Amino acid sequence: MDAAETGENLWRFAVTVYAQSAVAEECLAAQRRHGCDVCVLLAAAFAAAEGRLPDARTLAAWDAAVERWRSDVVKPLRTARDALKSLDVAGAAELRRAVLGDELQAERIEFKLLAEAATRWPAPYELDLGTEARVAATMRAVTAYYNGDPVDLPILMEAVTAR
Known about the structure:
7 helices, 74% helix, mainly alpha, CHP02444, 163 residues
């Protein structure tokens, strides 16, 4: 599978999983509390669902592949969108919706950057842990990568394994 196809598959996976009940809230909590990049988190979940077990080295490579894009583009758009929430100014709500669309497009590009890093994607894991155990281990690896402590993300894990 080439990077473009991987990027589209990753985007569809992320949109489908993120739309499931309470997944967005859990992912955003992981972002706020543990510093996780939600796109990297979802890419890792995608890899786990595909039979792969990303390790810290792989996660570091993925994070490095999107670091500048995230800091220079995604975060400023998110900051602007968040600021527009609390402003009681004519047109702010419409602008917030437009910025949200731009933020989603920026995240879609981030998934493409992650797909381009596919040469650093891990090979299928040799031991058959089962999807649930592999996804759980991957979610703990991602949170440990970002904050040093492995954290369970049961809602995301359930959404990934139920698909």
